[in-house]
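Q: Sequence in, structure out?
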Amino acid sequence: MLHSETRTALLRRAAEVRRRAYAPYSGFRVGAALLAEDGRIFAGCNVENASYSLTVCAERNALFHAVAEGAARFQALAVAAECDSPAAPCGACRQALSEFAPDLEIVLGDAEGRERETLSLRDLLPRRFGPDSLPGRGQA
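A: Exactly. Output:
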């Protein structure tokens, strides 16, 4: 479990990057901040496209940024969004995150970066499809 100061810092970063989201179609702006095991924080925001299927969620944007910078092990993810109930990562983001951190701690916050709920990725994706699901791959 993360220290409260770390959760607060992650949520602030997620709320900050949320302001840069490109969401002209849905108006639903989301920011995410991913904490690597080495302490680095990688941020991402959602980027929509007129061809809706090409939209990229904030969580995967942060993950792909982290991987591009050489990080592959993660402790926590913070998500900031403006909605009545906390916005958890979508199914595609859950699957992508589980490739790297099946036990990831996820902190959900509001648009200003105030914590609303904390849970684990395993709670959100209890029967993930991972490397150990592939024939001949063994345990991840």
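The first strand starts at residue 30 and ends at 36.
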